[in-house]
Amino acid sequence: MRRGWLFVTTLERPSTDLVDRVVERLRGVLRPDQILTSKTDRYNRARVPAPFPVHRWRERVPDLAVLPETTEEVAAVVSIANELRCPVVPRDGGTGLTDGAVPLHGGIVVDVKRMNRIHELDLENRTVTVGTGINMLKLNEQLAKHGLIYPDDPASYPCSLVGGRIGTSGWSLIGSRYGHTRDLVLSFDFVLPTGEILHVGDGAGGKISKSSSGYQLKHLFMGHQGTLGIATKATLKLYPKPEAELSPFWAFDDYDAAYRFTGALARAGVATFAGAVLFDEYKVAYLRRDDEAYIPQPADVRALTCAVLYGWEDEVRVGGKRLFRIAKEHGARYLGDEISEGDWAARHDRYATPLHGRTKAGQVVPMSWHCEDAAVNYTDVPAVTKAWHEIVADLRRKTDVFDDWGMFAYTSADTGVDYLTEIDVGIWEQRLDDAAWAMWVKAKRDIAAAALAHGGSISACHGSCREGEVDLVPRELGRGFDVMLGVKRMLDPNNIMNPGKYLLDLAYQGDVSAQLAELRGPS
Amino acid sequence: MSYRYSAENTPPTPERASEVAITTHEHVYEVDPRLMELHVLQQTFPNWDTLRIMHARHDHLAWMHTHFAEKTVTGSELIAEIEDSR
Amino acid sequence: MTQTEPDMRPDALQKPFTPGAPSNDPELESYPETVSGPVPLELTDRRTAEFVEEWRNASYNCYSSGHKFCREVCPVMQVTRNESWTPTAFHANVVAMEKGELEIADIAEDYVNCTQCGACELRCPNTLFTGDFYKFRTRTVDVVKAVRALAVESGVHQPNWQTWNERTNDRTHEPVLGETEISQENVRNWAEGLDIPIGGDTVLFVDCEAAFYRTAVPRAVAQILQKAGYEFGLMGEQWCCGGPAAEMGYVDQAKRFARHNLDNWRSTGTKRLLVLDPHDYISFTEDYPKYFGAEFDIEVVLVVEVLADLLAQGKLTPTVPVDRTITYHDPCRLNKRKGIWEEPRQILRAIPGLTFHDVDRVTQWSYCSGGGGGLPVEKPELTAAISEKRLGHAAELGVDTLVSACPWSERPLSEAGDAKDIDVIDIHELFAESLGITVGGSRGTVGDKRCGGGGCGGGGCS
Ligand SMILES: Cc1cc2nc3c(=O)[nH]c(=O)nc-3n(C[C@H](O)[C@H](O)[C@H](O)COP(=O)(O)OP(=O)(O)OC[C@H]3O[C@@H](n4cnc5c(N)ncnc54)[C@H](O)[C@@H]3O)c2cc1C
Ligand code: SF4
Description:
With 523 residues, chain A is an alpha+beta fold. Chain A has 17 helices and 19 strands. In chain A, strands 12, 13, 14, 15, 16, 17, 18 and 19 form an eight-stranded antiparallel beta sheet that branches. Chain A has a five-stranded antiparallel beta sheet with strand order 5-6-10-8-9. By secondary structure, chain B is an alpha+beta fold. Chain B has one domain. Chain B contains three helices and five strands. Chain C has 462 residues and is an alpha/beta fold. The N and C termini of chain C lie far apart (81 Å). At the A-C interface, α2, α4, α10, α13 and α14 of A face α1, α3 and α6 of C. β1 (2-3) of chain B pairs antiparallel with β4 of chain C. The structure holds flavin-adenine dinucleotide and iron/sulfur cluster. The site of iron/sulfur cluster has 15 residues of chain C, from α3.
């Protein structure tokens, strides 16, 4: 196994003198209650849910945080930061799992949660324009009054916010029907690292879903983990709130049967099909720890598939019947209405509960949930699944700090071409010392490498800028990574925007071909 | 409907539900207490709290369905329709 | 085929298993542990060390999730959008104290920003989905109370809370603002003319706000119970329940008050406590049991539940139509913290003449008046903003009246309602009116503009 390449960062933390000057200048553009400098203000904007050694918390503490309320305020803050060369870290819900909103070099956290207004609801064109600090569940409570829905439904639906969805180019549980964040966000106002304001969409449009004019910049300004700037106001595509939902769960004797069935469902071409999820045998064994639906299941329930359909009731019934006929051909055992409905409705809540954690002998321990995800083609899902469990089993052979919570594979598209493949790993953060952290970083790298070895992408969902996986990004993207460096250098000449992420510091180090070659390894 | 210390702190007799879980109140599973003796200890849990959480969960799940769609179509209805049409 | 890795040296970790099952491969218990874990820090401050020892696991249970499902239901968060004042932060700070990164003086002031409504801990998946399974749930309210207590013990006071609790101590009741002078002599003034005995098997406990300010509420309750032939008395010497002091961190005072009340019930042979205020209901069913354990053998009964029961039994039949369009405000301490939401709706549905636009209990997990947890004492502007938001939800329904069941919510809600021409009345007041009772007493300074013949007293009700 190659050693990971440690790169030297170009930016140090700002000096106290610089921080004082920044605060002084910010007072000219923000009210005092929008500038936060206390210890708790800063410590609580240094974290995201992904586990990290608690004894290293202070490394990530920003120097201050600001709570802007308008695009202009964001632009003013960024201009000052750019002028004074102070790092800026965009932060929205703080639920990201690849450390995007975590400051690596101190600086200013620009927390956009106050920008959560609904600016315009256009019932004719079916769009809504919102501040990027708004949460989808809260937005949908308002839209329901008009019979509409904004169907971006990550498992973090109750807590992630529109700006973070843009910053990560997020993945939605019902994306096979409605598309993912990139499809649902039509356009947005965006503050560049220089403080200039840009409107990004398809063409120049605010409410255009398809344009062929010029470069397609919208994709570029999504999923960059806040390294290219800050989205402040977004126009979103709306759908009729579904009349009906169907979410059957089926059981199988083994993984292979569930895998074949999942593929058949996804390929069936049912228009109301919003997604299918494959639960592997590790996942089912794990659910038997504490899940009321699976504790009483007979031993031959070893793997599961669920599907979900949304739409008008008549459409859902017809499509549903087609899936049930496929189920019959595959010998799928329907788990009943109660489990099917209850488990789907619990889709957001069942991931990150610390007490899911166990030592190998069975004692309950509080563990952080870490979701390692990749985008993998259907045909490669079994091989990746096998490789990932082996990586985690190896960790468990050494220590009880790590636990295998099983795997899901979710359809990403309506054709079943690729799957968000996810292994849930429990990590006992209270015991996470430097040695255990090093084990984990290596395991993350191995997990990412396995996805690449099977033709996949390191992440379908969260992004890939965490320690461990990030070293493999130049390998995954090839020449594309060099383009990334060029874009970064051009848009952020002073490297103030979320510095240290995605190895983008390399953009400021002259000729880095040797480093890149080493990172990419032998082809 | 009323609170009494002694009643609240006397849970129903547990029954084994699986190798790692028991049941106490109707519809409530609990961890086999022998698994929480070392690293995390169980909290004092009056009966009302257990029942409050269980009911709230069911209400929340029902709410989540109506949040995303006006109604749910059940699998059993569809299976019955498929059988009937044979 | 079963999912195994046949090409590997066979071992117990090669296949799926559920840890802790007696039938598991015994090899699972035999792997040597190679990680020693970080060296724990010795905290020099004794109080902090004890505090951290008691609360670290509770807080760690959130810290290690940190997903903020609680954020959007938090009333303070909704009006401030400041992440430093979220449940997540309240737990994380405790972990930071354990690691020596923060001290009580750094964090105390942040903990003012909480109404102890319980929304966060209920919405938290660690409560809602696994709290009952593990008998281990998120305890944000307890953690907030404990941090406030640590602050007080460490001499870090919030000025208004300190004064408030000193006054409560002097007067044996909370210094609620109003026309009645707060003193032991006046605590039963609200009951004037109602001819209620002292002591007995069952006593009605009336919270400070209702006894001294919103007196129409206890008057309504007492008269409804009398109408149903339900026997009860008043306490011999009622002191404040001590709940607010406990909420603000003045624990010794809270315990002293609780001791007094328990002794007083004993002296009058009281076995059952009727409680009309949700905050008191929490004190008696959560704080007192913690203070006294099994010694606390008093039965505690919530008035709304008694009334719903009397209604179901046909002992009370509302007949006077009340011509109002209402919605119901689920008091946090009933709906979120106790799961009581059905009975008030049963009562409201029985009142003739009402048009009732109900909002379900789950949606209301994110509603609050802002009146709890001492917030209005220290940060009245936040309480007002939270109440204003709540009234905004009511206004969208086109109602003229917001019905609550919690006297402490009614003052800030009424003030916010005044601006929107929405009356805020108490469910007991409304029920009494429909039972043909002339309630009397005061509905507060803002009052009730649409008050019918019921005799609402107070300002604005001519
Ligand atoms: C329980 C749980 C389940 C999850 N399930 C899913 C899932 O199903 N699908 C999925 O996609 N993700 C999932 N996630 C991950 C996370 O919720 C998403 O990555 C989400 O998009 C992050 O949004 P946020 O508002 O929390 O952003 P943050 O964490 O605050 O930020 C994420 C990134 O975006 C940047 N950013 C923030 N705001 C802006 C802005 N205004 N403009 C530009 N950049 C910005 C940040 O700098 C950071 O790099 C889950 C997380 C949790 C905890
Ligand atoms: S209190 Fe619960 S919901 Fe909120 S961050 Fe902590 S674990 Fe998550």
